[in-house]
Amino acid sequence: MLRLGNPGRRLHAGLIAMAFVLSLFAGRLVQLQGLDSKVLQAKAERQRVQPETLPARRGSITDVNGHELALTKDAAEIYVDPYEVDPKKREQVSSTLASELNLPKEKVDAALAKTQQRYIPLNRDVDPLRAKKIMGMRFKGVGSKPTYRRMYPGGRLAGGLLGFVGYDGHGLEGLERTYDKLLAGQDGQQSIEIGRGGERIPMTRSTRKEPVAGQDVRLTIDRDIQWAAEQAIDRQVQASKAASGSVIVMDIKTGQILAMANSPGVDLNHWSTVAAEDRGNRAVSEVFEPGSTNKVITAAAAIEHAGVTPNTVFRVPDQIQCADRVLKDAHTHPPEKLTFTGVIAESSNVGTIMAARKLSNQRLYDTIRAFGFGSVSGSGLPGEEAGLLPDWRTWSGSQRCTVAYGQGVSVTALQMASVYQTIANGGVRVTPSLVAGTTDGHGRLAPAPTPKQTRVISETTAKQISGMLEAAVGNDGTGTEAAIPGYRVAGKTGTAMRYDQKCGGYCGYTATFVGFTPADAPRLMALAVIQDPKKGHYGGAVAAPVFREVMSFALKTRKIPPTGTKAPKAVLRAGE
């Protein structure tokens, strides 16, 4: 016989099962809405609320007249959300973006293949009109947001000086790095609530902190003089088949740098394609033995502390014994009775050593140190080296002689330029400066602090040396190629053996000319240094023409007229 099931028993079993299931649901609801509600609410908010950085506009770098050397323009970032890209259109999206953004298609394909990532930037430097065109194609998963791009209107103009910014918008080299915090400003922030598809949810709360634009930095550089200096040094480096070269132009009274040019240079709009050694500022980072341009310091010490005058006569042979070495003049000659003016004008190593022997090692060292050797100039320029000035207690017998005429010490171009600024300024050294001030968003200029001034030698000594340097550019001096018609020019050539780590010793030469004008009322000084020239190597032949070209242009640009006076006759030899 078949036995019928008990309806009551089945009903009770069903009720128990339902009660158990409902209790599970109830427990879960209690957990979600009670125990874990705040945690889940925060998680949901994090998914909905999208934080976004609002980039600040980077400040400009301008020349002394307000011409922009580095500026910021509007740009757009194009990014992709691979998860949202329609797989059927992935090939079309990839080809289009590769073409519009000038990217390798393989790179775009690789980005779109990362479907687990929701945000991959493809290009952060897109022209806004091009970005608008791309967004007009309405590809799902392709987005755009506003940003900025750094531009350098002059390309190579002051490249090694200005430096450049990286892809993250922060300075990597030069002034862009040194003043990065000031130029960069402060990024803003905003947060909005978005839906599952990435669209903004209307009527929801949002927060926004406005970005603060960076300040502008105004330099002392004159754009036109900078251009002329770069053109001149480029031509001479190429003509002489040299390794490199630098030019500096300074205002004598203020110490302001009007031009600082380097060759080879760097095109800042394409800096990543330039070798690392050509991106920097050689005028402050490259050290070299100055050679005869250093003789003015020995002359200053001899006049100031040893009773030597411009007319003191030395009987100068063409070679001299210094400890275990015989040191020579550049050219052989019979013994000559040269005045100290003649020694400097004709750049006699032997005559300079004879004058230096009237000084103690410490006195010569202290004078060299007072002119700024062995320490950075105080300009604050990035990458500046201190050079090398060995302590006088460590000098060998021959080094005591070679230091006197500029071998055995190492300097930068800026340090040597500062020496001649000091002499031209009546013996007062003004710390070189490159920044005129900073400008806020309202165009108000906050001038930079006044540079420090230091008396190095007496005004009388400085004037006597100026007269000796003017003779060096005269008919019987070594710097005749630096003469500028109508102007009185004072200056000095330098030809030094060049130490090269690649060859492990002295290989080639450093050719230099540095001077100032008008000699009787100095306004501007300029220095030209050329490293390892292959066609010619004397400072008077290789560097002096660069000085003449750059200084002639600077005089016209600054509207500095000739003084109209004539240089007094300089006595170079006894009995003249």
From TrEMBL:
Q: Give the highest taxon in the source lineage.
A: Bacteria
- Where would I find the Penicillin-binding protein transpeptidase domain in this sequence? 245-551
Instruction: Show the InterPro entries listed in the entry.
Output: Beta-lactam/transpept (IPR050515), Beta-lactam/transpept-like (IPR012338), PBP_dimer (IPR005311), PBP_dimer_sf (IPR036138), PCN-bd_Tpept (IPR001460)
What keyword terms does UniProt attach to this protein?
Membrane
As for subcellular location, the record says: Membrane
Domain Penicillin-binding protein dimerisation as annotated: residue spans:
54-201
Say where the protein is mainly found.
membrane
Q: Does the keyword rRNA-binding apply?
A: no
Family matches, as PANTHER family: PEPTIDOGLYCAN D,D-TRANSPEPTIDASE, PEPTIDOGLYCAN D,D-TRANSPEPTIDASE FTSI
Entry's family note: Belongs to the transpeptidase family.
Q: What is this protein called?
A: Peptidoglycan D,D-transpeptidase FtsI family protein
**From which organism does this entry originate?**
Microtetraspora malaysiensis
Source organism phylogeny: Bacteria, Bacillati, Actinomycetota, Actinomycetes, Streptosporangiales
